């Protein structure tokens, strides 16, 4: 099935019946790469029956390769990789791009291993060199330098940070092709799938308010206090890398260079000192509120509102002030 011209392929993550918005950002950058390489700009989308594909075509895709089956309702990377691998080995794209979402970060290395190729993670820019090879740019050494990385094997694979590029603009006149693919492998009987499964997943990148906890939290149960403040403000809970690594909360909540990049209206950092890797993930928030007992903590250098105090005293007061419920101890 290898096309007559080279293929730049985007692996689009399903989000309900729609592609995750990061696919539209990858189409923006992918079009630049495809034009430089004189390649087709293709998308592989695996999802449940009834997936929306028109927006991918209108935003520049040459072809959308579509696999639909109820098995893709489960966010199980092994299922996606197993079904994608045989097709990708036949298609032989030169480049494969995936969004650096929680799912993409888990999917991409498994897919790269299955295809026996390399992977550059969390890229902030991509371009083709004079020989048609993909130059993959990503921050290194706590974002103090930018490293340009090239892959010796094909396909050249990279994950790209969500919200790093603008979305490709829709053009209703753009023509493309939807190619429906059969599942190459049988799938196990998954029984009754819960349609709202993905709605239950945490996506802090969409939250207008993020309340994050760091090393200042004494124990895992103390995240309940931050959850109540986030609930009161209509937001989500975030976390620094240290508390994720300590097992206080899942990686879905991690903010920073090795986690999510968030741009909420309000970011409340509770007990977070402000390491460069954490600041990289939240410094573009509209308003940053910092709560820390250390007046010299780096977080105060980027904060719009700084509160030098004990989060165990400040956060309960904020909860009660904004209409939430928290006991007075």
From TrEMBL:
The cofactor note from the UniProt entry for this protein is:
Binds 1 FAD per dimer.
GO biological process entries = fatty acid beta-oxidation using acyl-CoA dehydrogenase
Q: InterPro entries this protein is in?
A: DHS-like_NAD/FAD-binding_dom (IPR029035), ETF_a/b_N (IPR014730), ETF_a/FixB (IPR001308), ETF_alpha_N (IPR033947), ETF_asu_C (IPR014731), Rossmann-like_a/b/a_fold (IPR014729)
UniProt entry keywords in alphabetical sequence: FAD, Flavoprotein
Write one Gene Ontology MF term: electron transfer activity
**Flavoprotein as a keyword?**
yes
Q: What is any Pfam family matched here?
A: ETF
Record keyword GTP-binding present: no
Question: In what residue span(s) does the Electron transfer flavoprotein alpha/beta-subunit N-terminal domain sit?
Answer: 8-197
Record CDD domains: ETF_alpha (cd01715)
Q: Which SMART domains match?
A: ETF (SM00893)
Entry binding sites for FAD: 215, 240-241, 254-258, 271-278, 292
What cofactors are annotated for this protein?
FAD
UniProt lists the family membership as follows: Belongs to the ETF alpha-subunit/FixB family.
Protein known as: Electron transfer flavoprotein alpha subunit apoprotein
